[in-house]
Amino acid sequence: MLTASGLSKSYGPRRLFRDVTLELSAGRRIALVGSNGTGKTTLIEILVGIGEPDEGRVTKPRDMLLGYLPQNLVDTADGTVLEEVIAGAGELAELEKRLHHLEARMQDPAADQEDVLVEYGEVQGHFTAMGGYALEADARKVLAGLGFVETDADRPVREMSGGWRMRVALARLLLAKPDVLILDEPTNHLDIDSVAWLEQQLANWPAALLFVSHDRDFIDAVADRVVELAEGTALEYVGGFAEFVVAREDRLHRIEAAATRQAREVARVEQFIDRFRYKATKARQVQSRVKTLQKLEMIKAPDRRQLVAKFAFPEPPRSSRVVAEFHDATVGYGDMAVVSHVSLAVERGQTVALVGPNGAGKTTLLKLILGHLQPTAGRAGLGANVSIATFHQHQADELDGDKTVIEAFSGGIVPGKRNLRTVLGSFGFPGDAADRHVRDLSGGERTRLALAHTMIEPVNLLVLDEPTNHLDLPSCDVLEDALTAYPGTVLLVTHDRHLIRNVADAIIDVRDGRATWHPGVPDAVLTPADPGRIGSRQRESNRAADPRAERRRDSARSRQATNDLRRRVKKLERDSDIAEAKAAELAARLADPEVYERPEEVHRLATAHDQAVKLAESLLTEWHETAEELESLGG
After folding, report:
1. In what order do the strands lie in the sheet with 506-511?
2. Other Cβ atoms closer than 10 A to 242
3. What is the DSSP string of 323-379?
4. Crossing angle (nearest 10°) for helices 241-276 and 283-295
5. How do the residues of the chain divide into helix, strand and coil, expressed in percent and rounded to 5?
6. In the predicted model, is pLDDT for residue 79 greater than 70?
7. For residue 211, is pLDDT > 90?
8. Least confident stretch, 386-395, 413-422, 525-534
9. How far, in Å, CA of 286 to CA of 280, rounded?
């Protein structure tokens, strides 16, 4: 168990958080959320021992194994992918190395073969008992789940991109099975298939788990608690993301109501003071009320502007009805085709999400649309009067750190009627925040700034490649609002299923050398039953019979029904566990011989035990029925 108590951290006059208390015990899966700049990564670094708190302490057992995946890797491994992953298995990996060393000594005529064989037998027995001979197979399963193909296992890690090296580090941690696993944005470099696979692995993680994520679906599937860094401290909520949203809203309402009541009472007292300040007969009462106000700790209502921001776009120039079109197009590099026989059209005003495994060809298709690549067969091109703005994954890293936010944002933008500071405020940089230096921004804040710069120009086609990486939840809300308000056409590559469901009109599923059009947002594409193992689907027409608005309403109603049932199943499961625990506690008390010296206590305990058993049975029955209903809806 890892326990943090009373943690506080400041940078100069700016306090990140204070009095943070956190407990990571076996089976507890905690999602850490909060706005960019509230100190999520700083808190994690304190927990893993990289940073030091100003106040408080972190305690953990000496023999505890802690695994940590940062947002950005510093060290690069020298071995192959498989070697690096297996090396994470700790004692098993050391035993395997020892076996290989002893096998080499067996070939040495000068070695004492009898001693070598005895030691080899002991090491091999220990290795077998710990499941060592399944180690390589387990490592390959983890790699396959994270999107690696069979031939990647023997590739040197140094040859891989940063995103794939991050996957290697994640695979190593999953194979190691540490006592406490801490992950900082683990889904940033994963595709939708790998995110769904990782969900399955972590939803039943037996050890302690703490992770930072902006992916609502991922949090809902994995977490049983949500800790929010807000208002300078950590606030813990029991349940997944859906329960967190409800509980947080309830808490905000209570605080706002208390602040309103306090404000009314303060106004009443101040009115009394002003009325009787100069009356000698009321001097004592006036002074008493003045002292009361001086000692009063004012309740501060949360600033809801930090939770929601809105954005409106200028009307872009009108493009042709067909914005991008493919006719039996094939594209690749050299003689190798990446995507073949693509036939589809993207129409004006549509928001289309491209999904599929990493390396399947999503970015290649975007390059084909933008004219950076030419088809090796067939045709592909843009419609008439199409103007484009693009955002790529590493655009935030290209910002000049010496510039202020307003300078970086306004660079290259044609002056117009819009107030650029007002626009920046909509993207989460209000007031003095626009005068901060880019180098002082968090990764998520830089991404948000780069997005603002991309989306401010009045173009009619936005091409966004993984825009949610490093964004916090409020920033994802800003992006969602902006895309919903955007009057042009959007091509969006993202693994954020919540964003896709809320903004997309259609999906292009890119895998196995094909690009398949799906009108609407089918859950079977976003959350496959067998992640990473989806075959090609027959291509469909992109001209859906139903109006766009009707598709959205039908899809929203279906998702709402499924989500309500899913939350009900989770609640019934928790209530059933509580009732069973209560029945077990009462049964243990009834087993105590001393209790039978008090007949009235025996009667009370027996009655309570019967009621607890009946309640547990009733809840379990209701859970089964609700779970079956959810399963019938494909949930």
Report:
1. 388-391, 461-465, 489-493, 351-355, 506-511, 514-519
2. 17
3. EEEEEEEEEEETTEEEEEEEEEEEETT-EEEEES-TTSSHHHHHHHHHTSS--SEEE
4. 150
5. 50, 20, 30
6. yes
7. yes
8. 525-534
9. 10
Amino acid at 76: T
Region 301-306 average pLDDT? 55
Q: Which residue has the tokens 């000068």?
A: 110
Q: For the segment 334-377, what is each residue's pLDDT rounded down to a tens digit?
A: 778 889 999 999 998 899 999 988 878 888 888 888 888 899 99
Bridge partners of 183? 69, 211
Tell me how far apart the alpha carbons of residues 551 and 568 are, in angstroms, rounded to a whole number: 26
**Distance, C-alpha 462 to centroid of its chain:** 24
- pTM of full prediction above 0.85: no
* Residue 503 near residue 493, CB atoms below 8 Å: no
| Secondary structure class of 31 (helix, strand, coil) | strand
In terms of Cα–Cα distance, which of 146, 135, 140 is closest to 80?
A: 140
Q: How far apart are CA 184 and CA 24, in angstroms?
A: 15
* Token duo for residue 192: 């939708």
Helix (H) or strand (E) holding 317: none
Contacts 24+ apart (CB under 8 A), 85-88: 85/139, 85/142, 85/143, 85/168, 85/171, 85/172, 85/175, 86/135, 86/136, 86/139, 86/175, 87/172, 88/171, 88/172, 88/173, 88/175, 88/176
DSSP string, 236-284: EEESSHHHHHHHHHHHHHHHHHHHHHHHHHHHHHHHHHHHHTT-GGGHH
